[in-house]
Amino acid sequence: MTAQAGSAPTVSLQARSATGRYTYRAKAPRPQPTDRPQPKDRTDHTNHTNHAKLAHALGVHRQLLSHATSAIRTLTAARNELIAQAIEDGLTIATVSAATGENMKAVRTIALAYDDLHPSGLPRSVHLSAVKKKSDELRAAERHRTQITERREALIVMAVRNHVCDDLELASLTGLTPDHIRRSSRGIARPA
């Protein structure tokens, strides 16, 4: 910057002056802000959209899986209490095993876990129908969880195949380990 006597100093529009000092840039052209950043090209926008959709879908599946697991835990506890009460009221382990589909050793273990039960006086048919109904509900909840897990695995495979996410990001989105992600996507071409 040079200053002449009796005139205003001239202003450089460069970011740095030759001396390395601060340069006044009030009248320098500035980039205009936009509402949202514009993608460099169409493929960047498509990749970003695919990534956002996949991240949302994996988040939804993670939440659905959490709800399904919670429902299974609740149904298992209720069924186990019904099994123990049925055994306490005199039903045989073999009968309860046949009604629930559990093996006799599992039924015996469940019955022994509840040592503070007292006979309820309910008839045998009530116990059998309640245990069978709760076991059916539990099997339906387990099938639902399996379907959610299969859809999640398909999303993982699709993400790896389309190079939308890497293993660590997928592990973060799904709550799984990177090793599980690698096993799920074994045999799929990976990004270089």
Task: Detail the topology: elements first, then pairings.
Elements: H1 42-88, H2 93-100, H3 104-113, H4 124-161, H5 167-174, H6 178-184
Helix pairs in contact: 1-3, 1-4, 2-3, 2-4, 5-6
Question: How would you characterize this protein structure?
Answer:
There is one protein chain. The longest helix has 47 residues. 19% of the residues are buried. Helix 2 crosses helix 4. The chain is built from six helices and no strands. The chain is elongated and about 95 Å long. With 192 residues, it is an all-alpha fold.
Produce a short descriptive summary:
It is built from six helices and no strands. The protein is mainly alpha-helical.
Task: Using brief descriptors, characterize the structure shown.
mainly alpha, 192 residues, 61% helix, 6 helices
Largest sheet: none
Contiguous uncertain segments of 5+ residues? none
Strand content: under 5%
List SSEs in N-to-C order: HHHHHH
End-to-end CA span:
51 Å
The dominant shape is elongated
- Oligomerization status of the protein chains: single chain
| Mean of pLDDT | 81
Helix content: 55-70%
Structural class assignment: mainly alpha
